[in-house]
């Protein structure tokens, strides 16, 4: 089937957005070379992104304000806390111990977690194909991760893998739970509100637990924080929303499989990370499983 001009543009936007998102783990690893604590780095990311989301929140209005109740705002806070604060925190903590390419492969399994959470809480039984796809995805993660444990021999690698998996789990929980709020607020407004809530949570976390001076780092750290906020957070979030709108989620999920691949390439270029042939096979298995689980019946 021939793509229309709008769809072709959406494909190009999706590819660029995915590459930008994939660069986040690489930027975090580069910042860690300056001995920046995870919470401080997360604070820089959120602080640079916050003005953009506040501006959008002031300009845009919810899609259906008459349907929004006080309880909805409480749920909004909960989903902002879970989906953008906890998920980001676990991810940044995990990246202290695992390769950027391995982090992306583990995070990529979140669609399987969405299906499992939906099954557990909403009794929506997955299809046979979905079950096979889930098993395939986790087999790929096991292959990749077990090989990494064998290569590094570090116990912290296992800790990092668990933390990144918790990031995927909290983000999947956010996707499942926020589904009924997004039609009321709209995607852009909901994302902006949730990110503002997340930033407040990060600031509180920093004030309660950190003893470093966030203004004392080399200039390179702030440039990396700015790039992380703009290139790997704000810009791709809207690019991907545009792509999903014009291509549909199932088609976008196929393009989204470029995420782990682009991270592996970027990590090799900027960090010198390499994966063994067995780990590459594991990554391909994960990607195939996610494409299969994301397809329509």
TrEMBL record:
It comes from the Bacteria. InterPro entries: AA-Vitamin_Transporters (IPR050638), EamA_dom (IPR000620), EmrE-like (IPR037185). Its main location: membrane. Coiled coil: none annotated. The lineage of its organism: Bacteria, Pseudomonadati, Bacteroidota, Cytophagia, Cytophagales. Residues 9-145, 159-294 form the EamA domain. It is a multi-pass membrane protein. It is found in: Cell membrane. This is DMT family transporter. The chain crosses the membrane at residues 7-32, 38-61, 73-93, 105-122, 129-145, 157-176, 188-209, 221-240, 252-271, 277-294. Keywords: Cell membrane, Membrane, Transmembrane, Transmembrane helix.
């Amino acid at each position: 089937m021939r793509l229309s001009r709008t769809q072709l543009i959406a494909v190009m936007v999706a590819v660029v957005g995915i590459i930008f998102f994939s660069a986040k783990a690489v930027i975090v690893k580069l910042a860690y070379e300056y001995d920046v604590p995870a919470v401080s780095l997360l604070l820089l990311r959120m602080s640079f992104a916050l003005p953009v989301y506040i501006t959008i929140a002031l300009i845009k209005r919810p899609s259906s304000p008459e349907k929004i109740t006080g309880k909805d705002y409480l749920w909004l806070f909960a989903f902002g806390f879970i989906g953008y604060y906890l998920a980001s925190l676990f991810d940044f903590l995990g990246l202290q111990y695992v390769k950027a390419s391995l982090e992306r492969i583990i995070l990529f399994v979140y669609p399987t977690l969405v299906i499992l959470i939906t099954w557990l809480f909403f009794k929506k039984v997955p299809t046979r194909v979905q079950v096979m796809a889930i098993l395939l995805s986790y087999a790929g993660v096991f292959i990749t991760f077990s090989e990494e444990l064998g290569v590094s021999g570090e116990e912290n690698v296992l800790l990092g893998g668990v933390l990144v998996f918790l990031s995927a789990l909290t983000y999947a929980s956010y996707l499942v739970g926020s589904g009924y709020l997004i039609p009321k607020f709209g995607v852009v407004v909901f994302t902006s509100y949730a990110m503002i809530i997340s930033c407040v949570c990060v600031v509180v976390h920093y004030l309660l637990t950190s003893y470093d001076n966030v203004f004392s780092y080399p200039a390179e750290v702030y440039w990396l924080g700015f790039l992380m906020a703009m290139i790997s957070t704000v810009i791709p979030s809207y690019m991907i929303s545009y792509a999903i709108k014009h291509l549909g989620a199932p088609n976008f999920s196929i393009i989204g499989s470029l995420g782990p691949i682009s991270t592996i390439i970027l990590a090799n270029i900027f960090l010198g990370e390499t994966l063994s042939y067995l780990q590459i096979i594991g990554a391909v298995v994960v990607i195939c499983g996610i494409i299969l689980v994301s397809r329509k019946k």
